[in-house]
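Objective 1.3, modelling of assemblies. Example input:
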Amino acid sequence: MAKFKKRKTEMPAISTASLPDIVFMLLFFFMVATTMREDTLLVENTLPYADQVEKLDKKDLVMYIYAGKPSQRYQASMGTEARIQLNDNFASLNDIQQFIFAERESKREELIPFLTTSLKVDEETRMGLVSDIKLELRKAEALKINYTTRTGDASQNLD
Amino acid sequence: MAKRETPEVNAGSMADIAFLLLIFFLVTTTMENDSGISRKLPPMQDQEVEPPILKEKNVFQVMVNRNDDLLVEDELMDLSDLRQAAVDFLDNGGGVGPEACDYCQGARDPASSDNPDKAVIMLVNDRNTSYGTYIAVQNELVAAYNQLRNRTAMELYGKTFTRMEADYNDVNYTGDKELLEEQIQRVRDMWPQKLSEADRAN
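Predicted structure (tokens):
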């Protein structure tokens, strides 16, 4: 009678050789899709909803002005009144014109007419501050503006 | 002589390196593409310039007060009705003779706007109005213009205005771009966005 050798049945190890390939694939996807966050937000910034929106595609031709209540950790020093943020700092209304001129300076001359100002304003901000910002922009002749919003039904803003 | 084999490079740590990079990009990534309502601010004017006199029937006053209530022509209105009210006003075409509007389909009420070129929407807001409400109102008013432009573009060129604009911005569009630009401009001229904003000081 044939003798059966007692064979050890071991599970073969799963090959991880293709793991780098998978990870690289993901890596390239994120590298291509990524845009670095330009400014660190110092203010609360919940944008309102709107559905009649246009896309802002040329990122290099956009100047950002943020406004809203200071974030939690700055409230002790800055209070809870809505503030303006330009670049990485809190700013006052008088700084806006200077900011626009500085931004213009850094762009090529032929691109200056296409510069757009994106207003990223928290939905709970009072219009008084927004009107003041708009007045400063008019003084600086930065007339193209975009109220940056989230895409969605506008009636959600009222809740 | 014994066969010598070159030892293989250990690629085991490749995954670790790739993971490190992957996590870095995952953290720094922001996918969203900014979009919003584009507007053009009026240029600064000298104080001496007299504002043009508008007939009251050609002005559609939309007011948002400090409690975020919407008042249209001094009457309370729901945000959901604003779009239709604005469309009715712009589309009225009550003018006669040279001021008549042949593409309007409105009620032709002589007490409302003469033609879209004359019709002005005046948006008044208080300093205490919240930004969210303001954007909601702006959105509805822009939607009213878009609705009318889409209708006219559909009648004239068989596609919506939004589609035309998207085609114009599309680099892969194969049609005649100059013609398209002309058509877009024509629809824009038929329904000019005359949205005046005032800030009620207090």
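The longest helix of chain A spans residues 19-33.
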